[in-house]
Amino acid sequence: MIANAQNNLPEIEMIFVQGGTFQMGSDENDESAMHIEKPKHKVSVSDFHIGKYEVSQRLWEEVMGTNPSKIKDDNLPVSNVSWNDVQEFIKRLNKISNKEYRLPTEAEWEYAARGGNQSQGFIFIGSNHPDSVAWHFDNSDKLPHAVGTKQPNELDIYDMGGNVQEWVNDWYDAYPKGAQNNPKGAKSSDIGKVLRGGHYSILSTHGRPAWRCVSNPNFRSSYIGFRLAM
Taking a C-beta distance cutoff of 8 angstroms, is the pair 111, 178 a contact? Predict the structure, then answer.
């Protein structure tokens, strides 16, 4: 675990994820999966660290001096932030902390969501029962909740299947059929940047590890936040 409490910043807990190889995406014959989740393909990732929690409003406000979230509370995940907003936050955070935080790649995110080399092959992120691990449409009262209040996944990471949706670093790219090593997405895309995970006002089925969607990097929503990697 890496912690950072210097310069009056709240603690930033990071989970070490040992690299490995996994099957990314969804099977071609899975009728419940969207086409952009297919095909399932072999991906290898190197060691990395990822945030134990989604970035909180307290951390964002400490770094940026403002809080863009519509429902405000220090312990809630920050939301209503665009991908470009997040890049400015990371730039300032790295200057303050003298570290090298970044957004996870899409492959890193899905590998961590699946439990890395501790994966138990759950249907949802961290469980076969979404209510235990995610805030979603049926259990959230259509509101965000404090980070880390549901059960974590196999790697002790919280809220990947719900609460707020999360920006990752990649421009959208269609999946290849062949194997990939540390993929980073397209060099650019007219479609947008990738978002991962479910959120508090969407069906629990979006809390599957393979689920993905895309949006303009300037788009903001009360449903969208992020977690850090390094």
Answer: no
pLDDT tens digits, one per residue of 75-104: 999 999 999 999 999 999 999 999 999 999
Give me Rg for the CA atoms of the chain. Answer: 16
CB 81 within 8 A of CB 70: no
Say if CB 195 and CB 213 are below 8 A apart: yes
- Give the integer Cα–Cα distance in Å for 213 and 121: 22
CA 154 to CA 17: how far, in whole Å?
Answer: 11
Name the packing angle between helices 83-97 and 57-64 (round to 10°): 70
Contact 230, 104 (CB under 8 A): no
d(CA 5, CA 1): 13
Burial class (CB in 10 A: 0-12, 13-18, 19+), 58: middle
Say what the pTM is: 0.95
- What's the pLDDT score for residue 3? 45
